[in-house]
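Before we proceed, please read the two lines closing this message. Report back on whether the structure tokens fit the sequence:
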Amino acid sequence: MRRFLSFLAAGLFAIGLAACGSSKTDRAISGAGIGAAAGAVGGAVIGGDPVTGAVIGGAAGGAAGALTDEDDIDLGEPFWKR
């Protein structure tokens, strides 16, 4: 169960941050990078293989970035511009 929750958290993190970039390509690339990093960390934390976590997280983040639109996920104004 702990393993599932870690992957779920990494996936949600990747989806939430997949809003980086304005084009679908930019969003897919940044989402894949963020997802891979989160997956590798998640895999290492739960005692699994970080490479497998990175592959799964990268795929989930890339898909989330490619399948969402700039208007789908609005993280609001950055804190430094408030």
Remarks:
- The CA atoms of residues 24 and 66 lie 5 Å apart.
- The helical segments are 2-17, 24-45, 50-67.
- The longest helix spans residues 24-45.
- The mean pLDDT is 76.
